[in-house]
Amino acid sequence: MVRMDPQAVLEGRVPGRPPVGLILGLIVSTLCALVVLGALAWFGGAGFVAALLLAVLPIPPLIALVLALDRLEPEPPRTVALAFMWGAGVAVLGALVLNTAGMIYVTVPIFGETEGHFVSATVGAPLVEETLKGAVLFGLLWFRRNEIDGFADGLIYAAMVGLGFAMMENITYYMRALEEGGTGQLTAVFVLRGVIAPLSHPLFTSMLGLGVAWSATHRRGRVVAPVLGLLAAMVLHGLWNGSAALGAAGLVVVYGLDFCLLLVLIVIVLLERRGIVQRIERYLPMYEGTGLVTPQDVRMLGRLSSRRAARRWARATGGPMAARAMSDYQLAATELALLHKRAERGVADPAWLAQRRDALLGLMAVARQAFLWAPQHGVTGPPWAPGGPSGPPPVVG
């Protein structure tokens, strides 16, 4: 069987060449996060451990919730990890330095102690923090534009940046609450920030995520869309920070606005998922002549439940290697359909499109051979095409 690096093909990079930029970004982001944690531990005392545990507690289910939005075409794990660690490391450390310097040297000297803190919270902090969080999204747009296939991808990366930032920021809020009001105030702050509104930072940065996704997948508005997205993120962040000064009414308005925004983003993701399925049904049948796709395969690829059933069948009949091959086949087929989306919008070089198409078809061929030859004797075929053309080939000899 032909040896191939499926992950390299799916990520669109040269096989055998590691993503050095991503690895360096992860290292730098992790080091920055460790510096922040070390400083918080040094100044936080005994309250640091409790604050850290409470800040980390909601993160795994929130990450699972975010990644569940992207099950048809999951993003590369290393890139997702970079987004999260950038938010937890580079963005937090940069914001800590710049926000503090801004208050000491700009807002407080100009506006006084009380008004200076308010201006810093509602203007300075949103400008600094959303710019720092958004830097990794601009980096992905510049260096790895072809990985962003739609709004869902932009939202996934933005949400991961926001979750990383919020986790580290919450440590400081929990430490302060424990110091000022004991366990009672700590519980109240945890319920507010960790339970009721854990998605505030992801929601802010999601505005830039939409703008970056538009820029990556459209010919018009490539410059304007990210700029507008960044401005919208700053405005939402500023409204959130300033809502406390407006009393209960301000909090209700801001919470209601964020809830409506969350619903809109969910609708966008669901509509885009439907669009992916429609492209699978429209474009993949043209490859039936290659023997890599059948009508049964197209139907299987269009439903998440059918995809899961196919992976279970492959694992049951051929073990983990066959299950991995089935997953590679499904992802490559989805990427192939999304490649046609880029072609129809004219946002990619024709030579690159042809090279990418051939690489994906090659991966589909290798993966298909692996999971169709894997079944043991007596198995009639996969559940989505029993006895049909997608079934395992006959045993020879």
Question: How would you explain this protein's 3D organization?
Answer:
Mean pLDDT is 89; it is low at 391-397. Helix 8 (200-217) packs antiparallel against helix 9 (224-242). The longest helix is centred in the middle third of the chain and has 46 residues, at 151-196. The chain contains 13 helices and no strands. The protein has 2 domains: 19-279, no CATH class; 291-373, no CATH class. The chain has helices at residues 6-11, 20-44, 47-56, 59-67, 77-111, 113-143, 151-196, 200-217, 224-242, 247-283, 295-301, 304-345, 350-373. The protein is elongated, with a radius of gyration of 24 Å. The chain is mostly helical. 78% of the residues lie in helices and 0% in strands.
Q: Averaging pLDDT over every residue, what do you get?
A: 89
Q: What proportion strand?
A: under 5%
Structural class based on helices, strands and sheet pairing: mainly alpha
Distance between the termini: 20 Å
Number of domains: 2
Shape descriptor = elongated
Number of helices: 13
Q: Which blocks of ≥5 consecutive residues have pLDDT under 50?
A: 391-397
**Helix fraction?**
over 70%
Radius of gyration: 24 Å
What is the element string, with H for helices and E for strands?
Answer: HHHHHHHHHHHHH
Biggest β-sheet strands, sense, barrel: none
Total beta strands = 0
Topology summary:
Layout: H1 6-11, H2 20-44, H3 47-56, H4 59-67, H5 77-111, H6 113-143, H7 151-196, H8 200-217, H9 224-242, H10 247-283, H11 295-301, H12 304-345, H13 350-373
